[in-house]
Structures are given as C-alpha cells and as structure tokens.
Amino acid sequence: MSGTQKKDRLKKELKRFLFCTVGALIIAFNLKSFVRTGGLFPGGFSGVTLLIQQICDTYFHVTLPYTAVYIPLNLIPVYIGIKYLGKRFTFYSFYVILLSSVMTDLMPEVVITYDVLLICIFGGIINGTAVCICLFVGASAGGTDFISIYFSEKRGIDTWNFIFMANICILVTAGVLFGFDRALYSIIFQFCTTQLIQTLFKRYQKHTLLIITDQPSAIYGRIREITHHDATLFKGNGCFAGAERNMVYSVVSSEEVDMIMKEIKEVDPKAFVNVIKTEQVNGRFYRRPND
Hints:
alpha+beta; single chain; 291 residues; elongated; 4-stranded antiparallel beta sheet; 11 helices; 4 strands
C-alpha cells in the first residue's frame, strides 16, 4: 500500500470514527431528551431494553442501568456481524452500541417539550437521522440494524418494513403491560424513523434500467465502471420508424441511479431511459463490501 493510499485510508477511518461518534451521541441524546420524556418504547433493541428496565422497576423494584441490558442483548447481532457482515463494520457498530449505551446512562435529561405527538415525530426523525449517519459510513446503530442488513445482504430485499412489523410486536407487549396510549404513540415514533431511513439510505433498494440507445457499448462501460454491475443487450426494431434499436438492461442500487443517469446523458443525450423500482433480485448481484 502506497503512502497516498495509507493517507486516504486513514482519512476514511477518521471520518468513520467521527460520524459514528456523532451518531452515538445523537442516539443517547434522543433517548434521554425525547424518548424518556414521552415515556415511549422506540422499538428495536433499545425499546426492548427500556421495556425490561421498566418491568424490573415497576414489578421488582430493581433499577437496571441501560448499559447492563442493552449490551448483552446485542451480543448475538454482533456475532452475526462478525461472521457475515465484516469485522470492521462490526467493530464500528459495536463502538456505536457501547458509546450510545454508556452516554444514555451518563447524559443528563434535557426536556425539549412535553407534547407527546411532537416527541414522537421529531424524536423519530432524530433517531432515523442518527441511524443513517452510521449507515452512511459503513456501520450500524446495533440491534435490529444488524438483522436487517444481514437479510438485505443475503436475500437481496429491503427489510426495514419487516423490522417495523417486528417492532410493533414489542410495542403491543409494552401496551399490555403499561398502557396502550404510549405504545400507540411509540408506533408513530418508529414509523417516522423507518420512513426516514428508507428515504435517505438506499443501498439495499434496487432499480431496473431499460436504456434505448445508439451507444450501447459506451453506456455499458460506464455502468460497469461506476457500479461493477453487468448488463444485457437486446436488439429490436423501433415500431415508429422500423429502424434497428439497442436496449441495455441492468439492475443497480438505487443510490447509483443518479450517477448513471448523468453518465448516460453525457454519452448519448438522445438515449431513452426507463427506471423501474425493483422489489427483489435473485441470482448474482454485486454488493459493495461493508468493510
């Protein structure tokens, strides 16, 4: 590895460390300033942790630190991360888990508002933003994020909505034990988080490109260079003029679509492109490594 490569790698790792630190601090702040104030259960492993804490406090009069519950719950997801998602990805994710849980215990509560609906909406948005900050630099916020990413990698589908459904089961349990008003408000919180993640983080969403062009080889070269994905060339006749036409077919990550469209316009300004959202892909599909 050359000196320039080492310098670039160091910058990348420092950026990753900084973003993960910011994400973890936002998660802890959100838990202490919004979630605790509103009496919410945010879903995921953090929601399970708060639920266990409240059960122990209400029924057994035992006060458990957040760290003592949250970190053990994450051991199985961390194992999944090491085995299937990459050691560096798991290391930074565990750093987020550790820092966010410790800061949740140490950070003082700061009340922003007592309006529960505002807490649900803005708390959910803040939570989703913190998760995305971690995901953008190749880490996760822990818990169900590991599980979601694992199934996205192995099955090739966007699983955030499935995680949302699992979180509803947690919230129903909380509703039975502590009242459904806070549980129902918590669903709003979780919905805001999930929708923001789906909007901002598109790595596991896919789109199909159907490109009719006079420059198929050049366009395929750009797709291959940018995304490492392959493409298929179809030949046919245009119905209007009867001339022979070329159609390039490729499936790419949603976050790559804008870059590809820009390249297509440079290569062939007259190209006709149809972009279709793809629900699931089976077969070989290149995915950037998490590490």
